């Protein structure tokens, strides 16, 4: 769907393309690869907390948690007063106790230390969980690169795009693996939504004509800032689709 003829005019001048990673260059269907419960917490208890906390979120991590819990026949508990902070995580109440589910750095702002498993640097997306102020464990997920992504990067260069960037909330090691596989020029990892926006605005100030491609709530500010932007259709969030 093209929202206006003027966007076709602007596309002719694009020289820089900014990609999100998860759900854009990679499939949005993450899958659970490991669980790291805290001492005294079982895997089942950790997954119960995770699926309860994330049941109202549309984030790819939330969908992966719910699928994993369903496969292991784990049921969720009612979550109340749920609030989602884009790029950070979700908080609310379960059985009258506060929970947090999201980035380690976000939990640590609430003085909840999050130990990192030895192999965390080699995993993709991660969600840390806390209940009643106590870290309960972390879950780790992987994604796969879309088979058409490398060809699209090559096609963009052939039509005159000079600079291709990837902005992602994932860790540097994960982002580098994807960018190296696709031949992307520049990577910014562990980006929050406002940081993605800042990078796009800086590119524009430098005189570059920017196309932004993304699919999620976290991408909406950057999508709104691009000279032209593109959302991943039915695979994207409604906020991303509206912003593009």
Supply the helix-strand structural class.
alpha/beta
Shape: elongated
Going across the biggest sheet, name each strand in turn. 2-7-6-5-4-3
Q: How much helix, percentage-wise, in residues?
A: 25-40%
Radius of gyration, taken over Cα atoms and rounded to an integer in Å: 19 Å
SSE pattern, N- to C-terminal: HEEHHEEEHEEHEHEHEHEH
Sheet bearing the most strands, described? 6 strands, antiparallel
Termini, distance in Å?
10 Å
Salient structural properties:
single chain; 244 residues; alpha/beta; six-stranded antiparallel sheet; five-stranded parallel sheet; 34% helix
What does this structure look like?
With 244 residues, the protein is of the alpha/beta class. It has helices spanning 5-11, 43-54, 60-71, 104-108, 149-158, 172-182, 193-205, 220-225, 238-243; strands at 16-20, 31-37, 79-85, 89-94, 97-102, 126-131, 134-142, 163-167, 186-188, 210-214, 228-231. It has a six-stranded antiparallel sheet. Helix 8 links the parallel strand 10 and strand 11. Helix 2 (43-54) crosses helix 3. The longest helix has 13 residues, at 193-205. It is elongated, with a radius of gyration of 19 Å.
């Amino acid at each position: 769907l093209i929202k206006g003829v003027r966007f076709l005019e602007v596309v002719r001048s694009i020289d820089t393309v900014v990609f999100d990673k998860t759900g854009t260059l990679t499939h949005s269907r993450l899958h659970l690869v490991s669980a790291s419960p805290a001492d005294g917490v079982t895997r089942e208890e950790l997954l119960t907390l995770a699926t309860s906390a994330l049941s109202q979120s549309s984030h790819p991590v939330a969908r992966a948690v719910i699928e994993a819990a369903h496969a292991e026949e784990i049921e969720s508990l009612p979550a109340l007063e749920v609030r989602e902070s884009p790029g950070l995580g979700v908080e609310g109440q379960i059985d009258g106790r506060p929970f947090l589910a999201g980035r380690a750095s976000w939990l640590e702002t609430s003085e909840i230390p999050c130990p990192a498993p030895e192999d965390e640097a080699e995993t993709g997306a991660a969600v840390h969980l806390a209940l009643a102020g106590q870290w309960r464990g972390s879950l780790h997920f992987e994604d796969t690169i879309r088979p058409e992504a490398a060809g699209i990067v090559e096609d963009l260069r052939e039509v005159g795009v000079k600079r291709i960037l990837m902005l992602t909330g994932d860790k540097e090691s994960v982002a580098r693996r994807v960018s190296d596989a696709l031949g992307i020029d520049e990577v910014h990892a562990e980006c929050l939504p406002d940081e993605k926006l800042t990078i796009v605005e800086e590119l524009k100030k430098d005189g570059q004509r920017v196309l932004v491609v993304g699919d999620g709530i976290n991408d909406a500010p950057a999508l709104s800032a691009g000279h032209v932007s593109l959302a991943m259709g039915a695979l994207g969030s409604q906020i991303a689709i509206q912003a593009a």
